[in-house]
Amino acid sequence: MYTKRTRFKKDILCEFLPPARKLKHDKVIILCPGMPGSPSKKEVLEFWAKKGYWVFLLRYRGSWESGGSFLKISPHKDVLDILDGLTKGFKDIYSEEIIKLKAEKIYIFGSSFGGPAALLASSDKRVTKVVVMSSVVDWTEESKKEPLDWLAGFTKEAFGEAYRFNKRDWNKLKSGKFYSPAFEIKNINSKKILMIHAKDDDIVLYKPVERFAGNLGCELFLIKRGGHLSFSSFTKVRFLKKIEKFFKKL
After folding, report:
1. Which one of 73, 76, 103, 141 is CB 3.0 to 4.6 Å from 120, fit for a cystine?
2. Counts of helices then strands in the chain (DSSP H, E)
3. Can you give the pLDDT at residue 234?
4. Quick count: other Cβ atoms within 10 Å of Cβ 237?
5. What is the pTM of this model?
6. Could you give the C-alpha distances from 34 to 26, 63, 116, in angstroms and in order?
7. Boundaries of every domain in the chain
8. Which residue from 118, 85, 84, 82 is spatially nearest to 99, judged by alpha carbons?
9. CATH, domain range 4-248
10. For range 65-75, the mean pLDDT
């Protein structure tokens, strides 16, 4: 399967795949990856496309092929802009075909840094369910392994212009109010959320996540071992049954 490409709101580059088999009603998955890291998630795109979903993998504004400045605005707004574009129409850049979807169900998957984008987007009525792996919930709860100041320097040195941000915008994360599920907890729909986390995650610590899930009242699947769960975990058998069962819940 060859991944296709499109842009939303001129800036947001998405790789996408149509469903391998056409279903009666369109179902959509939007993938919000972690950072920094390789933008290639073809395995996950193909896996869910084969299950009958339209699958979109976004590049946050200011990262990789997307335009704009990283963290100038909250990355969850990139997700909302994609939701707008699905019904208004988007162009397959290769074929120049204009595609419009009437999605019956829209699911958002988020991992690590991308978790807050998925969680914050849950407040939109168009979003059906949200699943997050190893999601950050509060940027003020830093781990010793990847504190924010270190991560900013590492990203600049290791990834260069793949992430284009200034110090002022990066430091908004430290406020605890910007791009923060913990700060916006009253606006998050608990019934839409499934959180998956490992107790031995040393990058995003599990205690703040456990506390957040308890305060929110959402479903939390906590495992003893697994470390910082990778994006490929969305295709693993140990989580797949849990995710699909959650999809079926009203």
Report:
1. 76
2. 7, 10
3. 94
4. 6
5. 0.96
6. 26, 12, 10
7. 4-248
8. 85
9. 3.40.50.1820
10. 97
